[in-house]
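@channel sequence for tomorrow's demo:
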Amino acid sequence: MKLTIGRYRDEKAYDETFEPVRRVSTLLDALFSIRESIDHTLTFESGCRSGICGACAVKVDGRESLACSIMARDGMRVEPLSGYRPLRDLKVDRSLTEDRLSSAQAYLHEYGEAVCSEKDEERSRIQSDCILCGSCYSVCPVVEVDGEFIGPFALSRSYRYASDPRESGDVDILTAIQSHGVWDCTLCGECTAVCPQGVDSKNDILSLRSMSLRAGFSDPSFVSMDFGAGFSFDGAGF
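structure tokens (generated this afternoon):
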């Protein structure tokens, strides 16, 4: 079995093919085998090895996956996540995760007493299942054109708190995601498709848009539209 790994050294990206010398199961197992027996400098991240921590997220044949949760197979091409600054080989700078969560104010602002329904509890549980692996950010087409875009995982985390009846700072959260955030998403659904935890970021963003409208915000692209001199809402020029 041969694996091609997208490597990154001294600001240069290149591919290198390896053949693990022992029998392996998961892709992460194969990476460890290569580092232990062939190239001790191969750099990648791992943690729990159980699909829980998200540290081993990479791109496999162009698709985001957890290396510990996908079986190794002949001909695989493995490369680092997109959207993040590469550091070395498959390792990327994950400090961006904290920056995006901070920009989105995706945290508890002010706790208030409230009665939570089963639906409220289930919604909070689902959003809290996010392991911040970065797969959704890597696959997002908006990130490719807007490096300041808050990103799916941060917006889902914003929704987790903004929709919580115990959170008194929901307007502050909604305010934080108006620029480079909730209205910039194309709703392509790629983030939902690659999430290993089943978090539906696309639906969360749609919900955030509805919450934004109810709070008095509006889609800036709609507000800036020029309907033309012959367009009116009184029926005369429509």
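heads up for whoever presents: Confidence is low (pLDDT under 50) at residues 229-238.
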